[in-house]
Write a structure and sequence with these properties.
The chain has about 120 residues and is mainly alpha-helical. The protein has one domain. Helix content is about 75%, strand content about 0%. Helix 1 packs antiparallel against helix 5 and helix 4 crosses helix 5.
């Protein structure tokens, strides 16, 4: 849910800057983006901690860190698109990509919909 919210807010930010031109509204979208990014990151780390076996948790978090470290490469994609279509379109396409990937991830892996938020009891 955090990724979808993040994508929707990013899309709203892009459309606001292009169509409405309201700086205060754009800042409200940015505040929401920061909030959903924190919720998404916290939820992801909690899900990994709760669902991965203790013996391999360090390895899984290492791979997660490597993947997370490639995030700046998205700037290359955004710069390429903005060169031809404008910055607002590039940002909006980033929002659409986030929403699409989140929906596909949940559709392909139904167990994501059943993640528990409470830790399992140890007996």
């Amino acid at each position: 849910m955090g990724a979808i919210s993040n994508g929707v807010l990013l899309l709203g930010f892009a459309l606001t800057s292009e169509m409405v031109g309201s700086f205060p509204l754009a800042m409200m979208f940015m505040f929401g983006l920061g909030t959903t990014q924190m919720l998404y990151t916290t939820g992801t780390m909690g899900s990994i901690q709760l669902s991965v076996d203790d013996r391999v948790r360090g390895r899984v978090l290492g791979v997660y860190g490597i993947v997370w470290g490639t995030q700046p490469l998205s700037g290359t994609q955004a710069a390429f698109l903005s060169q031809f279509f404008g910055v607002a379109v590039a940002v909006a396409l980033g929002g659409v990509a986030i929403i699409t990937m989140a929906v596909v991830a949940v559709a392909v892996n139904p167990s994501l919909r059943q993640l528990r938020t409470d830790p399992p009891t140890q007996e």
